[in-house]
Amino acid sequence: MSEFETLVNKLLELKPELTKPEIEEKIKQKKDKIGAGYLTDQGALFLIASDLGVSLSEPLKVEMTLKELYVGAKEISLETRVLNLAPAKQFTRKDGSPFLLRTMTVYDGDSTASVKLWDEKAKLEGIEELKPGDLIKIIKAYVKSDLNGSPTINIGSSSHIEPSTGTSDIPSIDAITIDVSSVKEDQKDLVVTGIIDGMINSIEFTNSRGQPGKALRLGLKGNDGKSTRVVLWGKVESDVPKIILPNAKVLLFGVRTKAGNQGLEIHGNEATIIQVEGKQEATPIIFRIISISKSDSGKTMIIGVDEKKQIFKISDLSEKTLPFVEKDVIECMPSKVFGNSIILDENSFVRKMDDDSKLPSKTDLRTKITDVKIGEDYCIEAIILKIPERRQVQTKNGESVSLSEMFVEDDSGQIWIKGWRNQARPIDKCSIGEIISVTAVNARSGLESRTELFLTPFSSITKKN
């Protein structure tokens, strides 16, 4: 029930000789008399009560749902669940005085809303301990409009937030969590889960106000095997574990979707909470080098495999692996592990080990074309059936990029191998009829939803004699 409806009911209690239609007519008359643009229905109701000799001025505790919020509501109380929580930040008013502000997103059965906690309320006792899904009561808050015109709950000096220990019909956080493969364009305040796909990269940028900022960029793979690009603005590497194991589960609380240059993207902000399965302490990893190459920037790129046939992509930033060659077995203590991506830098430990027959060779890793599944990396051996072709492709943002492709087969089936931009060059060096061994190609959905193989910066093509 809205605050206005509560006030109407109170007036009916104080003046039982009136009916609701009569009150509505008096409101219309009062607004007509005062003039358009000066009175809301609620304001007119207060004047009518005064004319009738009764008072509606005492504060009211109005229970409402998020869907019933409206700009201008005061003294509202509601029960809701936490979706995410941003750190408190200090700002400066126009007069130069500082103030604190913390934002939070809450949800109930079918709606979400932003909450602003001002000054000392930004440091409420226990506020830092709130977790996604926690049930809370918001007491004596007021509602204002945000920049987009949406109602925003404000927690000021007379407002309060406290945990709620009772039962609730509001769905749990697990109940509203969706797989990344299910997201659609222009959704907001989502809880999304998926599997880490590749590296988590830190990026730096300058915002529209000329201020520097940072963000995390990662890939999230869903139940359908497809990877979705994720950008978390305002997040830094310390927000995620240093060691993230392969196929680690990721949970994002409070993100939105938008159309990007390469399809649907997920975006978060400082309030977004990211949970990743992982740990802070590294453990040694032993693997066999399957291929080793140099990137355009001179960085050493290695494909390795452990005894469980798990393929790793190793980026050596310190050239500690310079003495090693294909087939060598090495042990390393990485600085960071993001799924199957390993970073070696000056703080990493690397040494050569004796050969170990338990570690697979490149031949052991070969996969038949018919066994390729979307979302995984593979090593295949095949013969080229068509002359490789290069063409220019126009992206959504108008950029012209190179694409090379070749059609290959083994004794199980046929498939396209493609390379974008710099990855187009290795295909250009191939010829029809050649038998090639290709490492670290990623299977994705291509034209007409057919499975195709795409070269990555770690991929290598070796021609067989």
Structure description:
This protein is mostly beta strands. It folds into five domains: 3-51, no CATH class; 62-163, Nucleic acid-binding proteins (OB fold (Dihydrolipoamide Acetyltransferase, E2P), Beta Barrel); 178-276, Beta Barrel (OB fold (Dihydrolipoamide Acetyltransferase, E2P)); 285-353, Beta Barrel (OB fold (Dihydrolipoamide Acetyltransferase, E2P)), CATH 2.40.50; 366-463, Nucleic acid-binding proteins (OB fold (Dihydrolipoamide Acetyltransferase, E2P)). Helix content is 10%, strand content 44%. The protein is built from five helices and 30 strands. Strand 15 and strand 16 (263-268) form a beta hairpin. Helix 1 (3-14) packs parallel to helix 3 (41-51) and helix 2 (20-34) packs across helix 3. It starts with a helix and ends with a strand.
| Helical fraction | under 10%
Biggest sheet: strands, sense, closure? 8 strands, mixed
Rg over CA atoms, rounded to whole Å, is: 30 Å
Low-confidence stretches: none
Write down the CATH topology of the largest domain: OB fold (Dihydrolipoamide Acetyltransferase, E2P)
CATH superfamily of the largest domain: Nucleic acid-binding proteins
DSSP strand tally: 30
Percentage of residues in DSSP E strands: 35-45%
CATH class group of the largest domain: Mainly Beta
Keywords:
mainly beta; OB fold (Dihydrolipoamide Acetyltransferase, E2P); five-stranded mixed beta barrel; 465 residues
